[in-house]
């Protein structure tokens, strides 16, 4: 798993590679939600979320909270809006 470093006020995002999803861990409410991907569903599909991922390699969160995903199979950077 790959995780983007959280701040005290922002959630932590985790690349769950085996399930081809991005999970959001809310540190305040102790909840985990799937924000990108469908568990067990392969192939990249862009557009409306949840979308699909093949191989999320790295995650980054901008200072404004924008999530970026490095998708290894497609050699692309995906921006989650």
Could you walk me through the main structural features you see in this protein, from its secondary elements to its overall organization?
The protein has 81 residues and is an all-beta fold. The chain has a single domain (2-80), classed as Thrombin, subunit H, CATH 2.40.10. It has strands at 2-4, 12-16, 21-26, 31-36, 56-61, 67-71, 76-80. The strands form 2 sheets. A 4-stranded antiparallel beta sheet has the order 1-2-3-4, with no helix packed on it. Strand 2 (12-16) and strand 3 (21-26) form a beta hairpin. The radius of gyration is 12 Å and the shape is globular. The two termini are 22 Å apart. The mean pLDDT is 76.
Briefly summarize what is shown.
With 81 residues, the chain is mainly beta. It is 0% helix and 44% strand. A four-stranded antiparallel sheet has the order 1-2-3-4, with no helix packed on it. Strands 5-6-7 form a three-stranded antiparallel sheet, with no helix packed on it.
CATH class: Mainly Beta
Largest sheet: 4 strands, antiparallel
CATH architecture: Beta Barrel
Structural class: mainly beta
Oligomer: single chain
How many separate helices? 0
Distance between the termini: 22 Å
What's the Cα radius of gyration? 12 Å
Q: Tell me the total number of β-strands.
A: 7
CATH fold-level name: Thrombin, subunit H
**Portion in helices:** under 10%
Looking at the structure, what is the overall shape?
globular
Order of helices and strands: EEEEEEE
């Amino acid at each position: 798993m790959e995780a983007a470093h959280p701040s005290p006020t922002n959630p932590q995002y985790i690349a769950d590679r085996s399930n081809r999803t991005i999970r959001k861990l809310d540190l305040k409410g102790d909840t985990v939600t799937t924000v990108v991907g469908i568990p067990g569903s392969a192939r990249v599909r862009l557009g409306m979320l949840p979308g699909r991922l093949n191989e999320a390699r790295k995650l980054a969160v901008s200072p404004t909270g924008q999530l970026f995903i490095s998708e290894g199979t497609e050699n692309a950077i995906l921006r989650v809006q």
